Amino acid sequence: MCGILGLLLHDPSIDAAPEISEGLSLLQHRGQDACGIVTCGPKGRFYQCKANGMVRDIFDEKSIQKLVGGMGVGHVRYPTAGSFNNAEAQPFYVNSPYGIVFAHNGNLINTASLLHFLDATAHRHINTSSDSELLLNIFANNLQQTGKFRINEEDIFTAIGGLMKQAKGAYACVAMLAGFGIIAFRDPNGIRPVGMGVRKSATGSGKDYLFASESVVADASGFSEWVDVKPGEAVIITRGNVARRQVAKPAVFSPDIFEYVYFARPDSVLDGVSVYRSRMAMGDALAAEVKRVLAEQNLSVDVVIPVPDTSRVAALNLAQKLGLPYREGFIKNRYVGRTFIMPGQQMRKKNVRRKLNAMALEFADKNVLLVDDSIVRGTTSKEIVQMAKDVGAKKVIFASCAPPIRYPNVYGIDMPSRTELVAYGRDTSSIATAIGADLVIFQTMEDLEASVRQFNTNIPKFDCSVFTGDYVTGGVDEAYLCALENQRADNVRTKAKLNGADLNGTTPESTTSSSGPVNGGDDIVGLHNTWQR
Is 60 exposed, middle or buried (0-12, 13-18, 19+ CB in 10 A)? Predict the structure, then answer.
């Protein structure tokens, strides 16, 4: 999962980098592994700073001052494909044709065939194991086919339309052409989010434009008129024009419902749906299910306690519906990252107790209903249940705002292995045993979808593949899933991180690698990198 951002200021004498850095900090929840910014200054020259680390650590005053230019692209990354190699920090860059900078959120499912095409037909070198670099080179190759000295918007639309015929999977992308403008486009199913906003320029004439994964960036930066890029649509913005076009054949609009469950900030609006309101509705629906199950089990609850932070909204609504006290029983250390997106099972487990502290006075001698957004690997849930019991809870009932997650996500969320998912091959009772709870209650699939769809009835379908195993793009079979699991298993990734190695392998569709020798980091190949350790 990643966060992307593009900014074009009407006045080219004003540097865009400070605002891009601030915007990336608002998207930090979408990726904490690496971040980067590339700006475009006078005469179309690019300036770059990117590295592994958090936004606040990479972009200090000195780094930002070196990023010259009134337009730029930014990215925050959590790796779902490829490795932890520093060279895979985005945005990516190619100098031919025309100079292109590229940032991508999502995951492709036909990387092997794309890699073969780029190697055998387009003769383009791929330097990393990131599918984002593949996507960039497909786009670049399509632009190259024009053979023109200078391209126009029509050429760009044609190139993106060709890309959408070639690439399969989920992708929300922001690109920048040297001296030309910024571009955004979204896969035909609209699985990953991206939208745009506009505001009056600081100079009083003209307009500034923003692309971002979530609307919260626009809100914080004074942009208005937020609109989502439509599935299969491309948007090209220059200082003189805004052009939008549907460049792909219509497909079933299927945004990922897990964005609303967990990933997006509650103050964002995605595809016309307030994340906050959808989580309120999840709490209301879950309350009815909890009431039904508790009656069946002849159990009572004394207090409702959320697992911070994502579940707070739903837990409060649930408590109000059931007429139960709502208490903040866990105190969060805000200086520890989100455990779900932390690499490595041992790292996640170790950080749960660093992240949360249970207050005994809210748990002692009580039947406690814990509410969380979801149960993924079960590592965090098990530790939290144990913490509640350690401070004196009589019974711990665990309620999830989402159904059981039994399948891996292939569209950009790090749920690589079915065997790592606590719900895989288990019924509800077995899941409760696995995490140490007295009872586990899950939201139904129908209630989850209704909780989101009620705020935008024009969404015909959601990608619910982690719950149902139904992958909206097609092309995902058992062989693909096995290959994906082999590639992205925690032990392989940890080894790659420690050894500085890529995850190159022989699996058919999941591995992205170069057929030739892999060069060094981006401070050696491509743009000069201003980041210094």
Answer: exposed
Tokens of 212: 């971002």
Residue 481, pLDDT > 80, answer: yes
Nearest of 471, 510, 347, 489 to residue 420 by alpha carbon: 489
Mean pLDDT score of the chain, rounded to an integer? 90
Cα distances from 111 to residues 171, 386, 414, 512, in angstroms, run: 13, 42, 17, 6
Helix, strand or coil, per DSSP, at residue 209: strand
> Residue 267: left (phi > 0), alpha (psi -120 to 50), or beta?
alpha
**Chain position carrying tokens 């951002």:** 5
Report whether 415 contacts 408 (CB < 8 A).
Answer: yes
Query: How many Cβ atoms are within 10 Å of 29's Cβ, its own excluded?
Result: 22
| Residue from 2, 40, 173, 401 carrying the catalytic annotation | 2
Q: Which residues of 367-380 are buried (b: 16+ CB within 10 A; e: fewer)?
A: bbbbbbbbbbbbbb
Give the pLDDT confidence score for residue 530 in this predicted structure: 79
Give the tens place of pLDDT for each residue, 298-320: 999 999 999 998 999 999 999 99
Q: How confident is the model at residue 485 (pLDDT cuts 50, 70, 90)?
A: confident
| pTM across the whole model | 0.90
Phi/psi of residue 262, each to 5°? -140, -50
Q: Tell me the sheet residues that pair with 169.
A: 108
DSSP element (H, E) containing 226: strand 224-228
- C-alpha 91/C-alpha 46 separation (Å) is 12
d(Cα 182, Cα 192) in Å, to the nearest integer?
A: 19
**Cis check: omega of the bond before 460, within 30 degrees of 0:** no
Assess whether 2 carries a catalytic annotation. yes
Nearest CA to 509 among 104, 109, 126?
109
d(CA 517, CA 271): 42
Taking the C-alpha atoms of 115, 119, 121 and 124 in order, what is their torsion angle to the nearest 10 degrees? Answer: 100
List, for residues 126-179, the tens digit of each pLDDT value.
Answer: 998 899 999 999 999 999 999 999 999 999 999 999 999 999 999 999 999 999
CA angle 46, 50, 55 (to 5 degrees): 125
Closest of 226, 173, 217, 228 to residue 198, by C-alpha = 226
Q: Is residue 103 within 8 Å of residue 174, measured between CB atoms?
A: yes
